[in-house]
Amino acid sequence: MPEPLFFPKAAPITLDEIAALAGVPLPEGADPQAAFDEAVPLERAGPRSVAYMDNPLYAEALAETAAGLVLVSKRFAERVPAQALTLVCAEPYRAFAAVLARLHPSAMRPGSCFESVGVSHGALVHPTARIEHGAVIDPGAVIGPHAEIGRGTTVCANAVVGPHCRIGRDCAISAGVTLANALVGNRVILHPGVRMGQDGFGFAMGPRGHAKVPQVGRVIVQDDVEIGANTTIDRGSGRDTVIGEGTKIDNLVQIAHNVVIGRHCVIVSQVGISGSATLEDFVVLGGQVGVVGHVTVGMGAQIAATSNVNSDVPAGARWGGTPAKPVREWFREITAVKALASRRVSAKDEKE
């Protein structure tokens, strides 16, 4: 049985196309029409392959590669083997990504699970829903009353779009996604199992029991956001939960009610953000970071993985630890504790 081809290749890409994507001039004397069939890692590359290198950990793989073309940063350009063409780029990985996208366009966003065209006969679309021409609705998808879906958007199998939700154009709503009380912009990608717009965790707690507080806000997702599998985003309690333009969220992230996330943030897997926290633009949260409610993480701040943020973080800061603090202070504490432990072990050995 032949192996399935999940991401078919487009036509070969020429050297002048690659140079244009990378924004660099052609190598002197190179054939602009030289063609390449694939973009692969250094160790798998052959004469018609494009590879890249910008990390010293892969210096040995670079020296041994059989690639026909290497996208490389200036510091490693002299290490490219003689048989390979070299394109020196400021950002080799970004250039490599552009080549991959050109060769495998179907890998850029989830597509129809059923290769559907238009609204499938197996979809359940309420008569009052508005579906623009050019949208794709897979079998098993449910589109609720007064929902609106823009052209070029795909709603995959068994996804549910609740009443009055609006989804913009050229979005990908993957299999098993559920949307409620949400407004979604253009070119948004929601991976399988995303849950968006459900109740926030709101209760008036007391000795007589915990009274449910109605959650009457929305979720607003701006353009060009990508949200990973099985991430949950609660709707606001009174204010809206907002995900800013261009933000990228990994799998298994929990975002609570009233959270406001700015533009072009990066949030890695298993992060938990508590209610009413604010992340300003270009914030980065490493894996398993916890952010308590009602704090603000300033523009461009970076939080190290597994840290716990329980106070406001200044713009541009780099913090880590539990509780999170400036990285230098955190490192000093770790060094001091390590030194103290070492002294105690040495003292114990002397007594023995």
Automatic annotation (TrEMBL):
The metabolic or biological pathway listed in the UniProt record of this protein is: Bacterial outer membrane biogenesis; LPS lipid A biosynthesis
Q: Does the keyword Transferase apply?
A: yes
Its EC number(s): 2.3.1.191
Tell me the GO BP annotations in alphabetical order: lipid A biosynthetic process
- Tell me the ranges covered by the UDP-3-O-[3-hydroxymyristoyl] glucosamine N-acyltransferase non-repeat region domain, including all copies: 40-101
- Xref: Pfam families: Hexapep, LpxD
Keywords, comma-separated and alphabetical: Acyltransferase, Lipid A biosynthesis, Lipid biosynthesis, Lipid metabolism, Repeat, Transferase
Q: Where is the active site?
A: 257
Top EC group: transferase
Per the record, what are the reactions this protein catalyses?
a UDP-3-O-[(3R)-3-hydroxyacyl]-alpha-D-glucosamine + a (3R)-hydroxyacyl-[ACP] = a UDP-2-N,3-O-bis[(3R)-3-hydroxyacyl]-alpha-D-glucosamine + holo-[ACP] + H(+)
Q: Name one GO cellular component term.
A: membrane
User: What GO molecular-function term can you cite, just one?
Assistant: UDP-3-O-[(3R)-3-hydroxyacyl]-glucosamine N-acyltransferase activity
Under InterPro entries, the record lists:
Hexapep, Hexapep_transf_CS, LpxD, Trimer_LpxA-like_sf, UDP_GlcNAc_AcTrfase_non-rep
Which NCBIfam families does this entry report, sorted A to Z? Answer: lipid_A_lpxD (TIGR01853), PRK00892.1 (NF002060)
| Complexes and interactors | Homotrimer.
Function text? Catalyzes the N-acylation of UDP-3-O-acylglucosamine using 3-hydroxyacyl-ACP as the acyl donor. Is involved in the biosynthesis of lipid A, a phosphorylated glycolipid that anchors the lipopolysaccharide to the outer membrane of the cell.
Which family is this sequence assigned to? Belongs to the transferase hexapeptide repeat family. LpxD subfamily.
- Name the record gives this protein: UDP-3-O-acylglucosamine N-acyltransferase
Q: From which organism does this entry originate?
A: Salinarimonas ramus
UniProt lists the gene as: lpxD
